[in-house]
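Quick illustration, no need to memorize.
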Amino acid sequence: MTTPSTNSFAFPPELLKQSNLERLAYFQGKIVAHPRLREAHQTLLNAIRQPADASLILVFGPTGVGKTTLRLRIEQQLCEDLRSAVVHDPGRIAVASVEAVSPDSGDFRWKDYYHRALKALDDPLLDQRLDHRVRNIRRGGDGELVIGPHVSLGDMRRVLEQALHYRRPQAFLVDEAQHFKKIAGGRRLLDQMDVLKSLASLTGIVHVLIGTYDLLGLANLSAQLNRRTIEIHFPRYRAENQDEWTVFQSSLLTFQHHLPLAKVPDLVGRSEYFYERSVGCIGILKSWLGRALSAALEESADTLTFQHLEHTAEPLRKLLRMAREIQEGEEALVERANQQAELHRLLGMPQIPERSSDHKTGTVVGKRKPKLDPVGSPEHGV
């Protein structure tokens, strides 16, 4: 247990006199701008600003890696970029975002998606700009968009195109985009992506699809789709890479000193434990620490204890499922030598020699592989 002096707190000391809700809100609002997040942010921002011929941008990574944080930071940045333009053109917005909702059963529901997209664009004069052929789309007395049950998908698509043309956001962001795959049949999956690609192309608004590794392979459904798509990987931190392990520990240390508690717990001293229970994902780590902090505050505890952490950690069965999905996703991204050899064969180029297996491990030679150390006695602080 570490008992620091007041000036070693990274949070404002007066927080200790505030309510539990205010202290918890402070920690939840703390964002650690770690290298993975900064790199994904800059790569995505560059792609939005200069998409070239791309209509779609796919951002994928493990669940809990911080993709929602990335989306919020991108939205903030795009709003800053267009602050003056929006002032001079009130009809324009900087960015719009929507969450692709998983269907209750069966196919992805496009009508629901179009409805949510129109609400996200929030065009105040939409009903005045509607084509006279479009019926049953209007604004209610409270200003809410009302879409009747008999509106066709084609009409809703045209209305959405009109809204995108008028609002002209820099990008249209779709979170949880892996739900677009909730369909039956391989051919229809290509149709799903073609709808999004054409919507982006016709309006000139790049669409950013953010989701899990389930997005992998969507760009490869056709050569045309591949050419019009940019892929961005937002990965976890790997324990076998010493540089990444150091960054994970640094992020853990930052969280450690921003926990608004009277005594700073020694989280870094148990780095392996925190890595294991977060599977190397900063988003999972932060959510877990937030739950543990809430439990500690409810008990008026002066620091986090092992019990707080154990009682609020994700169950091992969930962590195992996450780890398996991460491994499958990462393996799918590895460019193996036989893929390059096939490309050379198709292009009529000289064949390349096969690489030795030592080049495929990604392990840094001579670096320590972190191991799980004993966590400590439950009755003591961490």
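Residues 1-7, 356-380 have pLDDT under 50 and may be disordered.
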